[in-house]
Design a protein that fits this description.
CATH topology of the largest domain: pyruvate-formate lyase- activating enzyme
Radius of gyration: 22 Å
Shape: globular
Number of strands: 17
CATH superfamily of the largest domain: tm_1862 like domain
Strand content: 15-25%
Strand order of the largest sheet: 6-5-4-3-1-2-17
Number of domains: 2
CATH class of the largest domain: Alpha Beta
Length: 465
């Protein structure tokens, strides 16, 4: 038996299952019984506590306490200060751990759930002495030399770290044939989950789907360097029709960019028209949006498209690795609003090289767009962060960024690794100024936060299948 665990941020999804269900299907198709534990909460992002903290491993002090508790066979969270949401997440996790069968535990790890995953892994070590613990997902895929993975491996918290697609690596682990660090490649043969009627939740009948992987853009802040892999659209269509027959009302298409090519986007639009869900959404590329495509998307009941705009300054955009022509952005918004599709556009404030004047221009443009379109357009602002593997992380001097590193003496036995992990970074802007900018952008970005029609509850949700 293989146990797959994912703790998801409910702020960014309206579904009740995560991508680990694709991994479950891959393993079950090859004869390995697998159970998914999907947990959904509205999780706080650590960046809003210290916007200059590097997200690689900003919980080093807590890790040291947990490690010492584990080695003394004390409760892992002994003397750890927990928030209310921490207590809820850990209560659910701990209550389920005692019922999990088998000895393989795979965690889908992100920057916001890293701490919870480490606590759960240490708890498993205490409960199941012969356990094999695997960390995979986005956070384990960052960078060529993942220092977090090295720390967790050397300290014995995990047995294996998996980069990129976990399918083939997890299959090897299930057959007891694995190395400490393994990498998988995404395949055109996407193992779409074989959901049943039991997976349809009446108050939230939305599921995640995917037809491709990878992004052609190489933005300086992004650590994802996956090549484009396009799955078979016939299989994608069959999967959607099966889910529609089960009673699902909508889907979130989790392709990095579902309109990387205009021709493929048109094929997807035709498929969505045939399936005829009540609602669907996805991530899109601003450049390949035109009237013909948006008309088809509208007819197929596309309600929201997430688009990475990031800023309105041409010079910052060029430095970032994206072209930005304001009239093109405005044209994109006009087309989407015309076809009643909500543009949900991401913004990033306080990027390297962004001057006060450039920030003010982005803020002014955001205000003007919102004044013109109201709730027909929303923006989702965030604060620039450093991710291992990104150009800004690998070449900080090039972008005027400086690092402060953790003190290895905090846990001397692993000091050589800890002192290579960045603690904070600076782009020459104070934390107070960064937070002021974010609050200003946030105040002007939307007035209606809930954009997922079927998310009728903001309470935590859990799905075990």
């Amino acid at each position: 038996m293989i146990n797959l665990i994912s703790i998801c941020n409910n702020s960014f999804t309206g579904t009740v299952s995560s991508s680990i269900n694709y991994l479950k299907q891959f393993l079950e198709d090859r004869g390995h019984e697998t159970t998914c534990y999907d947990y959904f909460y509205t999780l706080p992002n650590p960046v809003f506590i210290r916007p200059d903290h590097v997200m690689e491993m900003n919980i080093i002090p807590e890790f040291v306490k947990m490690y010492k508790n584990w080695k003394k066979n004390l409760p892992i969270i002994h003397n750890i200060e927990l928030s209310q949401i921490d207590q809820i997440v850990l209560k659910d996790l701990f209550s389920d751990l005692k019922y999990m069968k088998g000895n393989i535990f795979g965690f889908q790890v992100s920057t916001v759930n890293l701490g919870y995953s480490i606590i759960a892994a240490m708890k498993i070590r205490q409960m199941y002495k012969d356990s094999i613990i695997v960390f995979g997902g986005y956070h384990m895929s960052l960078g060529l030399e993942n220092k977090v993975a090295k720390l967790l491996l050397k300290s014995g918290v995990i047995d294996c770290a998996v980069r990129d697609d976990g399918s083939e690596p997890m299959l090897k682990i299930a057959n007891n044939d694995y190395e400490e660090i393994m990498s998988g490649k995404f395949s055109v043969d996407i193992p779409h989950p074989k959901y049943t009627k039991n997976d349809v939740i009446e108050t939230n009948p939305v599921f995640p789907s995917v037809s491709s992987y990878g992004c052609p853009f190489k933005c300086f802040f992004c650590a994802s360097k996956r090549d484009n892999v396009f799955g078979d659209l016939g299989s994608f269509r069959d999967h959607l029709l099966h889910c529609k027959d089960l009673g699902f009302k909508g889907t979130e298409i989790n392709d990095d960019n579902l309109n990387i090519t205009l021709s493929r986007a048109m094929e997807i639009a035709d498929i969505m028209c045939d399936v005829n869900f009540d609602y669907w959404t996805g991530w899109a590329n601003q450049k390949n949006i035109n009237n013909e495509l948006m008309e088809k998307f509208h007819l197929s009941n596309c309600k929201v498209l997430m688009i990475g705009i990031e800023c309105f300054s041409a010079s910052v955009a060029e430095n970032m690795g994206k072209e930005r022509i304001i009239k093109d952005v405005m044209n994109t918004i006009d087309i989407m609003v015309k076809h009643e599709i909500l543009p949900c556009m991401t913004l990033i404030t306080s990027m390297p090289g962004e001057t006060e004047e450039e920030y003010e221009f982005t803020l002014k443009t955001t205000i003007e767009i919102r004044k013109k379109y109201g709730d027909k357009v929303i923006f989702v602002p965030s604060i620039f962060q450093m991710y291992p593997g990104s150009d800004t992380y690998n070449n900080p001097e090039k972008f005027g960024i400086s690092f402060e590193y953790w003190d290895g003496n905090i846990l001397p036995e692993f000091g050589e690794i800890i002192e290579t992990i960045p603690k904070t970074f600076s782009v020459g802007i104070s934390n107070e100024k960064i937070m002021e900018r974010w609050k200003q952008l946030n105040a002007e970005s939307y007035s209606k936060r809930i954009i997922i029609p079927y998310s009728k509850s903001k309470q935590k949700r859990k799905l075990i299948r």
